[in-house]
Amino acid sequence: MGNVIKRLLQFNKFKYLLNSFFSVTSRFLLTYIFADYFKFNFVVVYIATYIFVLLQSYTISKFFVFQSNRKNLLAFSISNISFTVIEYFAIMFIQKNTVLNYSFSTFIIGLITFFIRYYIYKNLIFSKNE
Q1: CA 11 to centroid of chain Cα atoms
Q2: CB 19 within 8 A of CB 65
């Protein structure tokens, strides 16, 4: 059983899925607690949560999922800032046009975008062909 777990942890796609699951879950929980439960301003919660998840995701991606071989923080940040702007409008659309609150809207958008992020991380940002 230990060998199976060790092999899974060496498999980049599995590590990325764990990282993405942690990121999506973190965003969901933080948004639920602060935006939906405590009724803080969603924009403030969204930005603060996003910065937390960005730092967490970059650290995990760089050191545990993808083997970084050059400066890629700028590309990582630019791609994620682009994603967060698109995600924000998608979350607002879902929240206003459905019965879902901010946290569940954030969760759904996070699940949708993590496949796109994996492709970008693997093939563009953390590419070994630099």
Answers
A1: 19
A2: yes
